[in-house]
Amino acid sequence: MSELKISKEFLEENKSNLSQFMPKTRRRGPYSKQEKESRRNEVYRLHFDYGYSARKISELMKVNRNTINGDVSYWYSKIISNHNIFDPEMDILIRLKRFEVQRTRLRIQTDKTNEFQEKLSLERIILDIDSKVLQIYQKLGESTKRVMDAVTINLNHEMKKQKKDTRYMLLFDKIAVSERAKERIEQIIREDKASNHHH
Question: What's the pTM value of the predicted model, to 2 decimals?
Answer without folding.
Answer: 0.39
